[in-house]
């Protein structure tokens, strides 16, 4: 897909972290960007900075998401690029020792369900609503491409750590969705891929750096090469390549410096 100012994009979680880096990269390439986020102040400020539009969107709420797409399309026209980075998730070990009671407890099923909604179901919600809009748009090139959808998975989908049953399971479900969705949408010329980031210097990790610098340093040392956390800009760079290169379809791509973490 040729990237220029004729294209519109939606980036979820675009007010910070990987979403912000994706939105920045797309805007710098000339794309009109709509940011979906619940952080209104940060989102409004960043959208203004990149000449985009902010949409206050809760990815777990169907009406909120549909309203966000309507606002984005009113401002920029039909989006041809969707980058889904937003997430709502919980954590916890399957069974763990509770010091307060002196016994064992399990992570509540409701917490796992919340993560499933905030990771897998939300990914389907964003992708399917976008695809429905793209389906009737004019093709962009001789291949008949109408749009591209980039989901955010995680290295934890294949390499989940202790306490990541909800997160790793949700991201694994995202991976499992990519190929059948790409096949569902092949006749419409809509591509679907996922990026599987490793440990990146996003706001949660930067808080670790502030409060536990030695932990942050060790996280970087665990990466084979380069021996550091990923920069969000490196995620944004891959987003641009997945948009440009039409032969990327149905893929889940690790972006992790070759990290393969043993359980700890």
UniProtKB/TrEMBL annotation:
Keyword field: Oxidoreductase
Name the UniProt record assigns to this protein: NAD(P)-dependent dehydrogenase, short-chain alcohol dehydrogenase family
UniProt organism field: Novosphingobium panipatense
Keyword Oxidoreductase: yes
PANTHER family noted in UniProt: 17-BETA-HYDROXYSTEROID DEHYDROGENASE 14-RELATED, SHORT-CHAIN DEHYDROGENASE/REDUCTASE
A UniProt-annotated Pfam family: adh_short_C2
Gene3D superfamilies: NAD(P)-binding Rossmann-like Domain (3.40.50.720)
């Amino acid at each position: 897909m040729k990237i220029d100012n004729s294209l519109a994009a939606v980036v979820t979680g675009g007010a910070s972290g990987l979403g912000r880096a994706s939105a920045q990269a797309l805007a710098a390439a000339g794309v009109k960007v709509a940011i979906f986020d619940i952080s209104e102040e940060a989102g409004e400020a960043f959208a203004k900075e990149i000449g985009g539009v902010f949409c206050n969107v809760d990815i777990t709420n169907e009406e909120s998401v549909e309203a966000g797409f309507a606002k984005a399309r009113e401002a920029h026209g039909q989006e041809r690029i969707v980058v889904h980075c937003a997430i709502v998730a919980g954590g916890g070990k399957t069974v763990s020792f509770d010091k307060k009671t002196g016994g064992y407890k399990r992570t509540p099923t409701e917490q796992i369900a919340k993560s499933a909604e905030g990771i897998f179901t939300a990914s389907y919600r964003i992708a399917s609503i976008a695809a429905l809009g793209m389906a009737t748009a004019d093709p962009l090139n001789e291949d008949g491409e109408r749009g591209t959808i980039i989901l955010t998975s995680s290295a934890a989908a294949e390499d989940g750590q202790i306490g990541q049953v909800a997160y790793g399971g949700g991201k694994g479900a995202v991976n499992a969705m990519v190929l059948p969705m790409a096949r569902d949408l092949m006749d419409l010329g809509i591509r679907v891929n996922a990026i599987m980031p490793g440990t990146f210097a996003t706001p949660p990790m930067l808080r670790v750096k502030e409060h536990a610098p030695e932990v942050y340093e060790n996280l970087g040392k665990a990466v084979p090469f380069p021996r550091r956390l990923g920069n969000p800009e490196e995620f944004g760079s891959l987003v641009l390549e997945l948009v440009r290169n039409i032969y990327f379809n149905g893929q889940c791509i690790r972006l992790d410096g070759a990290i393969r973490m043993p359980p700890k």
